[in-house]
Amino acid sequence: MAYDPNNVFARILRGELKSVRAYEDNFAVAFYDNNPRVSVHIIVVPRGPYCSWSDFSMKATDEEIAGFMRAVAIVAERNNLEASGYRLITNHGANSGQEVPHFHMHLLGGQRLGPILDESCPAP
Ligand code: AMP
Fold first, then answer.
1. Active site residue 102
2. Which of 43, 64, 103, 120 is the one with CA 20 to 30 A from 97?
3. Residue 30, SS3?
4. Where do the DSSP E strands lie in the chain?
5. 70-108 per-position pLDDT tens digit
6. Distance 61 CA to ligand 1 centre (A)
């Protein structure tokens, strides 16, 4: 899959679309999801042009991967989620329902999160 430079998160990274930023460094930018599903719902994206988890994992440099992973932990810590706990979710491709084709991690917390998948996910 070719990277679409006009996807929503690419436009946020370039400053063309507004977002409420939670954190940024050389490797990652974090901003609040504009349709939060839980009390704290933050999107963390790498700065580089990667479509999804697989693309990022296979093509990003070790430095980019380490920097991104560390940034996610920093964002969690700065939002006081370290002690209370949080969940990370990333969607890859059609079956996951990925909407935005720029790799991103959902950082979810601030309340009890319940089961990983709800009843709307049919049993196999
Ligand atoms: P996914 O289904 O994993 O691709 O998730 C995309 C997420 O991006 C959803 O939770 C959306 O609510 C969120 N989102 C879409 N557009 C924006 C935006 N302009 N600012 C912040 N979050 C957004």
1. no
2. 64
3. strand
4. 21-24, 28-32, 40-46, 86-89, 105-109
5. 999 999 999 999 999 999 999 999 999 999 999 999 999
6. 25
